[in-house]
Specification:
This protein is mainly beta. It has a single domain, classed as Pnp Oxidase, Chain A (Roll). 14% of the residues lie in helices and 52% in strands. It contains three helices and twelve strands, in the order βββββαβααββββββ. A seven-stranded antiparallel β-sheet has the order 3-2-6-9-10-5-4. The chain has a three-stranded antiparallel β-sheet with strand order 1-11-12, with no helix packed on it. The relative contact order is 0.26.
Length: 146
């Protein structure tokens, strides 16, 4: 499956202990009308538990200069370590990675078990876009598109 190029995102939410987030590449637009997003997280993900508790999540689509952010959020490091040194802000009560190409806020709709991951669907409540070159994961490594 490493031959399937994917965009690189951070799926995040806010909780009682602060923000939680994880790198995810199984993320896509699911529907235009109504506007829905789909994101898949590992069953053992602390971010998954936080998203379920908050009933909301955000998606930040990373650009080609944010590989370090992707690597940080892909670890099992303590939550506070993942956010240390990462430029982010709160939008609509949810974390947003600064300078992301796209930020989407969602209300959680569905939680569907699927293999070793869980599929989340969310109704889009807000979004912001920027321009730039997306970060892509392909062949087991991060790389810019193009």
């Amino acid at each position: 499956m490493a031959s399937l190029p994917t965009g690189v995102t951070i799926v995040a939410t806010s909780g009682d202990d602060g923000p939680a987030g994880a790198t995810a590449n199984a993320v896509t637009s699911l529907s235009i009308d109504p506007m829905l997003m789909l994101a898949c997280l590992d069953r053992g993900s602390r971010t998954l538990l936080a998203v379920q508790a908050a009933d909301r999540f955000s998606v930040s689509v990373l650009h080609d200069g944010q590989e370090g952010v992707a690597r940080s959020f892909a670890t099992k490091a303590p939550v506070a370590e993942k956010w240390a040194g990462v430029a982010w802000s709160e939008r609509d009560g949810l974390p947003a990675i600064d300078d992301a190409l796209l930020w989407v806020a969602c209300d959680l709709q569905d939680v569907i078990a699927a293999g070793d991951h869980v599929i989340l669907t969310g109704a889009v409540t807000d979004l912001a876009t920027a321009s730039g070159v997306p970060l892509v994961f392909h062949g087991g490594d991060y790389q810019p598109l193009g």
